[in-house]
Amino acid sequence: MPKQKVDEQTIILEALKLFRQKSYFNTSMSDIASACGLQKGSLYHYFPSKEELMKKVIKEVHEFFKTNVFSHAYDKSCSPQERLERLFTSAEAVFLDKEKGSLLGNMGVETALMVPEFAELVRRFFMDFFHAVKTIYLDKYPEKIANELAERSVAEIEGSLMFSRVFNDHSYLKNTTKRILSRIDKVAVADKEIKETVF
Asked: Distance between CA atoms of 39 and 11, rounded to whole angstroms?
């Protein structure tokens, strides 16, 4: 049977939607083919396996975050507070978007643990996430403190995503974002008080 005219990007986006809705393990190649208007056999002309398609989906999500979310961390025309706010509010919007929502939240980690081939791809995403947040904190704090704050922030986002999924309540993620954004000022005040006391 000849391939129908569906581009690879359409397949990736349809697969992403299904993986988020049903999970990677509960989504079949038949499900993806149907969502794309393809016969199952035709889908294999584009991707030889569900694993290969998932790898492409993870890379696509990662690139989207690098361009639309993590990039805010490196915009030196804005203050650290503004960059942090743009990064985390952008991340929150993507995580909560039903159409484009990120696969690399809690579900991405779960999948990586079950399918070792995905682990390195998911790890790279979180390394870039961590580095972006740390870059912002480095403008205000020594590396050790920036490192700790970045680790804490990314871990809290990951935890709140899990809670949001378990309880079907987006307020967990929204409240975490608010806490992270308020923290940079609180840490700055504490840092100033320590310096004033010491000197």
From this structure: 12
Q: Which CATH class is domain 1-48?
A: mainly alpha
- Kindly state the helix (H) or strand (E) to which residue 34 belongs, with its residue range: helix 29-35
For 11, counting Cβ atoms within 10 Å of its Cβ (0-12 exposed, 13-18 middle, 19+ buried), the class is buried
Q: Mention every residue, 6+ apart, whose C-beta is less than 8 A from residue 89.
A: 177
Whether residue 68 contacts residue 95, with contact meaning beta carbons closer than 8 Å, is answered with no
Q: Where are the domains of the chain?
A: 1-48, 59-198
Is the Cβ–Cβ distance between 59 and 69 less than 8 Å? no
Its CATH class, for the domain covering 59-198, is mainly alpha
Contact residues for 48 (Cβ-Cβ < 8 A; gap 6+): none
Smallest Cα–Cα separation from 47: which of 32, 61, 25? 32
Model pLDDT for residues 29-86, shown as the tens digit of each residue:
999 999 999 999 999 999 999 999 999 999 998 999 999 999 999 999 999 999 999 9
**pTM attached to this predicted model:** 0.83
Instruction: Determine contact, residues 137/146, Cβ cutoff 8 Å.
Output: yes
